[in-house]
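Forum: Protein Structure Q&A
Topic: Joint prediction for protein chains with partners

I've read a bunch of threads here and the consensus seems to be that you should model interacting components together rather than docking separate models afterwards. I'd like to see that in practice. Below is the full input, 643 residues plus whatever partners are listed. Could one of the regulars post the assembled result?
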Amino acid sequence: MSSSREKILAAARANKPEETLLPTVPDFGGDASAERFTEVLTGIGGQVIWLDGPEQLQPVLAQLFPESRISASTLFSGTLPVDALTTTEVLADVDLAVLAGEIGVAENGAIWLPEANMMHRALPTITQHLVLVLDHRRIVATMHQAYAQLPSTGGYGAFVAGPSKTADIEQSLVIGAHGARSLVVLLY
Amino acid sequence: MNHATRAAKFIGDADRTTWHDETLWFVRTKRDKAVYAVPEFQDLRELASQIKNHTLSKLDFYLEQFEEQAKRNGVHVHWAADADEHNAIILDIIRQHNATRIVKSKSMLTEECHLNPHLIANGIEVVDTDLGERIIQLRDEAPSHLVLPAIHLKKEDVGETFFQHLGTAKGEVDPQVLTEAARQHLRARFLAAEVAISGVNFAVAETGGIVICTNEGNADLGVNLAHVHIGAMGIEKLIPRLSDLSVFTRLLARSATGQPVTTYTSHYTKPADGKEMHIVIVDNGRTKQLGRPDFRASLKCIRCGACMNTCPVYRRSGGHSYDATVPGPIGSILSPNIDMKKHSSLPFASTLCGSCSDVCPVKIDIHTQLYKWRQVLAEANEIPASKKWSMKLMGRFLTSPRALGIGGKLARHGIKFLPYSLTHARHFNVWAVARELPEPPKQSFHEWYQQQEVK
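Posted by a regular:
Agreed with the consensus. Here's the joint model:
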């Protein structure tokens, strides 16, 4: 195995072109408004709702997901206790996960969700519905600004932009492929 | 069989060809709309191109940096010189865990290495979890496009496949219903999987982490439920810095499907507690391509498929006509590097219009490379004798003003007397298949120009 390593590295060394410069990536600026974020996220199948205060969280959720039986959240009590050791069988029954997003990106509607906010790495995709709660002051214009704000990507983390979707059958858009069937972003 | 022969089979169904052409063009127009909305898009293309050029120019350094960081993160790093070694490494990891249930998200590299047949031959069940890939896996077909693997199929085809394999109702063709059936079918596979195999969109040298982009969430669901994650990456997936991702994530989905970004852009850096993460770094001809100055830029490719959606030949000949893992314009410059003889007709499956180069998010000079491959193939005697000799003859004819003058005169006056059966003889004049000869002009440009000077 190590011989292939040496072989590949030697071939790369021998065959690489003359060194060229690594460019600096500028910050292109851009629109970081909650309006832009909302418009883009709505366009890709997400839903944005403003919360007037933290006490509104549960009433809004009750209204949005009246059928929800098993929910998991770090933001309010009385939900399914999920952590990194929760089994697949238990996770498979979650129909609503309510998690805190860290950074919103106005140009594409993406929200950075680090592992620390996920309860379990699989929760954001195995849940039937996903709600991300986001401070509107954490919305940036572009991916450049988003990455600039990330201290690190931790062990695992994802930008999530809208619900799971596919267009693999005749290019017809279907929401709800394998991950969450819907994404609601609650802005405060 | 060459590209033209396989394409002839595809275009035998005119309605389907038209549908295929229009559907891909629709994706191209969606791409344009997304691209024009970003004022700095051309700057981003240039940045992406420079970042990739730089990475290739220090590839050995970044490979070692990546390996060191990944190991520090607790990731097992493996190196595979070719497809066989790649397959052997993955089978070995699976066997070490006595695993038999495997899910796999999109990876063109594992297609290139023919991993699935290898695993199946060794008694391992491997389920492709991307919807398009699952459809073609059930049909035992190869993907026909980089990001739209089942674009050659109609919903009726998918309905029939699901009726046979997933028990949907006969005649069910609603994409919503079919997708839901696949969701239920695959969810059971996700929940049971012991090992998850994934591709890699980007590998970040400074963090040792890999990034996977999907719309369906199938990579995340698979990887995060299974005990073992195996990521397979070609050596060209590297980028130096985390911040470089900002450039590529802005380009990839916009170029591919016209989305502002993929639904999930997932960063895998360390295994979860108690779990295992492996990365297999694969060469399989890539360092050879790096050593070809005319063709090394093809290693900058980020597999968006934009060149396919825009290509007038691809849109009308279908992905399977290329008989290669990566079809379309980019595939036509990658494949001859792997097997020049087998893929010798691909660089000719192009009008050299340059549309592929225009849309390429990392500015690969695709059409120039197609043209250069033709020279290489001619030198290596890998083009048909008829083409070789007719080109030689034509070359001599066109470089002699005297021959051209006489020949032109003969053609202008004589062509109308030639019998149709001769001008349209299939074996001598392939050009005339589906084409009529033009009305010959009364005089040549040369003659006309001389008259102008007299005035």
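Chain A has six helices and eleven strands.
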